[in-house]
Amino acid sequence: MSTFYNASGSSNNSANSFSLLNICTRITFDGSNFNDWIQNIRMALRCLDKEYVLEKELNGIDETKATPEEITKYRAHCKDGTKVSCIMSATMTPELQRLYEDYWSYEMCKDLMEKYHQRVLQERYKIVRSFIITKMKDGDSIMAHLQRMQRYVDYLLKLNVNFDEELAIDIVLHSLPPSYDHFKMTYHMAQ
After folding, report:
1. Where do the domains of the chain lie?
2. Most buried of 105, 120, 167, 187 (most Cβ within 10 A)?
3. Which 3 state secondary structure label does DSSP give 166?
């Protein structure tokens, strides 16, 4: 878990966790705002290094046959998953809380993704469109542009959009201004 330090240099994990929970509660999931809600949850979990529990299913282990490292990882995943499930439930309407109170964070996220798939498709369309039409202007920072393009790729991967790495590279190269034509030609010749 990330450790944060206050102005005096001492660790203050509980205060930061509380602050992140406050951020999460700004959006209460009511069934109509899934994309905003899950984005908010993911940002807070990413800061706490717990986002993995939404993406990685917790499979039981036989502690008599598992290594100490496997047992430690399993127990940490259980603990993190419980905390995340509580945060997710706490940021839902009471009706949705009752529906999901016995769900594990991974299963809850998966079920919600399936139920609100149409909205996710709309979000995917918006991100794909932005990714394709984004163009860097001459004089803009290449690093800022590449970071923006990488965020689009990362977000699409989080939405379970699988696409070829070469296609992503082609889209990024296409987004560069004419002043990068020599670079693009050199890149393609090297392939």
Report:
1. 13-115, 119-190
2. 105
3. helix
> What gap in Å lies between CA 31 and CA 29, rounded to an integer?
6
* Contact yes or no for 56/77 (Cβ under 8 A): yes
d(CA 137, CA 187): 20
> Measured in whole angstroms, how far is the alpha carbon of residue 146 from the centre of its chain?
18
Which of 158, 190, 179 is closest to 169 using CA atoms?
A: 190
Q: What's the chain's average pLDDT? A: 85
d(CA 117, CA 59): 25
Q: Are 59 and 106 in contact (CB under 8 A)?
A: no
Model confidence pLDDT, tens digit, residues 124-180? 899 999 999 999 999 999 999 999 999 999 888 877 677 788 999 999 999 999 999
**Contact yes or no for 68/131 (Cβ under 8 A):** no
| Residue pair 131/116 in contact by the 8 Å Cβ criterion | no
- What is the rounded distance in angstroms from the CA atom of residue 26 to the CA atom of residue 88? 12
User: What does the block give as tokens for 35?
Assistant: 């994309």
Exposure letters 116-153 (e unless 16+ CB within 10 A, then b): beebbeebbeebbeebeeeebeeeeeeeebeebbeebb
Q: Which of 168, 181, 176, 102 is nearest to 139 (CA)?
A: 176
